[in-house]
Design a protein that fits this description.
Layout lengths: L5 H6 L25 H9 L4 H26 L9 H24 L8 E2 L5 H8 L13 E7 L2 E7 L2 H29 L2 H5 L4 H13 L2 H8 L3 H17 L5 E7 L2 E7 L1 H4 L1 H18 L20 H6 L18 H29 L6 H21 L6 E2 L1 H10 L4 H16 L1 H6 L5 H21 L9 H23 L9 H11 L2 H15 L4 H4 L1 H12 L14 H4 L18
Antiparallel strand pairs: 1-6, 2-3, 4-5
Helix pairs in contact: 3-4, 3-16, 3-17, 4-15, 4-17, 5-14, 6-14, 6-15, 8-19, 8-20, 8-22, 9-19, 10-12, 10-19, 12-19, 14-15, 14-16, 14-21, 20-22
Main location: membrane
Pfam families: Xan_ur_permease (PF00860)
Keywords: Membrane, Transmembrane, Transmembrane helix, Transport
């Protein structure tokens, strides 16, 4: 249920019929499917009734909310808005709003798969590295801060105690970094260079990169959980209970089908394990607050588990707030921030490609052709630019927990996901809604982080299934890359000011890159894997390519990936065939 679980999904072999393995045009018509796939395909591809859409679009929204709200809650402290609950609620509303927009774009113009877009953890690590620079560190509480406010006539230093300007200036720096770095993702998509890049990026580069995304966030999980370890442990236990121990338990529910009411078994606990776990921890905190079991002084252990700390966020937040581009000001751009954020862009790109294949398989669609993958990556880049313009402090990527739900519910409709996107936009405008999430106690959030970040780290390791782990070469690359990705950033954090080349901008570039865990680990893995002699089979390249190419071989109709009204026009002109984004070779 984490945004990185596509690697686990890809480990499962796609179901194939005895007569063939063709997929189906999952939203347009039912193709001829033989054997065991016929019943599944009919469920996936049948015309969708209003009741189906009504039942399933809230489910996708609920599945995504944990990963989406985690992003602004992690960034709140380094952005210096730890105690500004209204600002945090605005960030949550903004990221929901933009996630809805990007979901509509991806399902309509991108891959056109039923895939949800939301905040990505790949951008958090470089963001934390940027905000750790001396000039962006939070000022001491209640101290006047000298800020340089950009005016139209130039720069004017003003002495002020304006908490909004303090965090907005930091947000604008992150916005600018994401805005420029996302251009790389757009170029990779529209130029068709994604396939070329992935020829040199194997499992030994991907594994430490994704693994270090999870490992580098252990401090954030510890900070939240440390407010009350008992509540954090309870939240973890509840999530594990629902997601693992009760995963096979189905709950009887009623549905209207074929003009009569029917009872069906629904995997409620398996789908909503994170939600139920957090709600259970939240409820316990509420009861402990009501009966005054938890301390009432902020300097006492356990105070952060109270549910009445942030009630002012709900009270002071406006009923309606429409997020808009530039709401925090004009983005600022610096070389160090952009280079650091590019590491997150590359990691996000690698994750999304695996998501597309998994989503196509579970939704009953044929494997995505090359032009659909390229277009999906390009649209994700556009989505990241929208996120930067609106000021979410993050980018967007595909959400794997929603992909897993497709295989469980057997409803692979892009209409359901588009309705989910519209719901996210509407609730993003409703200001009080975002404020409600601020009242979740920190230990409950910490418990969710413990499971989520641990899962991210484990999914990174799961890429090693393609690699020969009996090879000392591979063990050396893996061990050194992971260990180096932990040691170097930790040393740089422990020795601030150690880099002094005499050029301030160069110092910042070095510090940001060498304090970004996944960049260090991924860089070492990439360089060593491509320079130390080894066969493709030993490196895992052959197994990985065989799997992807095996899923890509399909002679069935792939018109579900065509852009309505546009693809027939593209086919008339040979030039679009060479772009690799609108047509594959031979489609002219």
């Amino acid at each position: 249920w984490t945004p990185f679980s596509h690697r686990l999904l890809l480990r499962q072999n796609p179901s194939k019929s005895k007569g063939g393995s063709d997929g189906c045009n999952f939203c347009l018509s039912v193709q001829t499917v033989l054997g065991k796939d016929r019943e599944r395909a009919q469920k996936m591809c049948s015309p969708f009734k209003r009741l189906t859409v009504f039942i399933h679009f809230p489910q996708h929204y609920i599945l995504a909310f944990g990963g989406i709200i985690a992003v602004p809650l992690i960034l709140a402290e380094p952005l210096c808005i730890k105690d500004n609950n209204v600002a945090k609620s605005q960030l949550i509303s903004t990221i929901f709003f933009v996630s809805g927009l990007c979901t509509l774009l991806q399902t309509a113009l991108g891959t056109r798969l039923p895939i949800l877009q939301g905040g990505t953890f790949s951008f958090i690590t470089p963001t934390l590295a940027i905000l750790a620079l001396p000039k962006w560190q939070c000022p001491a509480p209640n101290s006047p801060v000298m800020l340089s406010v950009q005016l139209q006539n130039g720069t004017s230093p003003l002495q002020m105690e304006n908490s909004d300007e303090i965090w907005m200036s930091r947000m604008r720096e992150i916005q600018g970094a994401i805005l420029v770095a996302s251009l790389l993702q757009i170029v990779l998509g529209f130029s068709g260079l994604v396939g070329l890049v992935l020829r040199f990026i194997g499992p030994l580069a991907i594994a430490p990169t994704i693994n270090l995304i999870g490992l580098s966030l252990f401090i954030e999980a510890g900070k939240k959980s440390g407010g009350h370890w008992g509540i954090a442990a309870l939240t973890v236990s509840l999530i594990l209970l629902f997601s693992q121990y009760l995963s096979k338990v189905n709950v009887p529910m009623i549905a209207y089908k074929d003009k009569k009411w029917k009872v069906f078994q629904y995997p409620l606990f398996k789908l909503f394990s994170a939600l139920f776990g957090m709600c259970g921890g939240w409820l316990v905190c509420f009861l402990l607050t009501i009966f005054d079991v938890l301390p009432t002084k902020s300097d006492q252990y356990g105070f952060s588990a109270r549910t009445d700390i942030s009630l002012d966020a709900v009270k002071n937040s406006p009923w309606f707030h429409v997020p808009y581009p530039g709401q925090w000001g004009l983005p600022t751009v610096s070389l160090s921030s952009v280079l650091g954020m590019m590491a997150g862009v590359l990691a996000s790109t690698m994750e999304s490609i695996g998501d597309y294949y998994a989503c196509a398989r579970l939704s009953g669609a044929p494997p995505p052709p090359t032009h659909a993958i390229n277009r999906g990556i390009a649209v994700e880049g556009i989505g990241c630019i929208l996120a930067a313009l609106w000021g979410t402090g993050n980018g967007t990527t595909s959400y794997s927990q929603n992909i897993a739900a497709l295989g469980i519910t057997k409803v692979g409709s892009r209409l359901v996901l588009q309705t989910t996107g519209i719901l996210m936009i509407i609730l993003g405008i409703f200001g009080k809604f975002g404020a409600v999430f601020i009242t979740i106690p920190d230990p409950v959030i910490g418990g969710m982080f413990l499971v989520m970040f641990g899962m991210i780290a484990a999914v990174g390791i799961s890429n090693l299934q393609y690699v020969d782990l009996n090879s000392s070469r591979n063990l050396l690359i893996l061990g050194f890359s992971t260990f180096g990705g932990l040691v170097l950033p930790t040393w740089f954090h422990s020795n601030p000011g150690i880099i002094d080349t005499g050029i301030k901008e160069l110092d910042q570039v070095i510090i940001v890159l060498f304090t970004t865990h996944m960049f260090i680990g991924g860089f070492f893995g990439f360089v060593l894997d491509n320079t130390i002699p080894g066969t493709d089979k030993e490196r895992g390249i052959k197994s990985w390519q065989d799997k992807v190419q095996g899923e890509s071989k399909c002679t069935c109709d792939q018109s579900c990936y065509d852009i309505p009204f546009c693809t027939p026009i593209f086919k008339r002109f040979r030039c679009f065939q060479y772009l690799g984004t609108f047509l594959d070779s031979g489609q002219h």
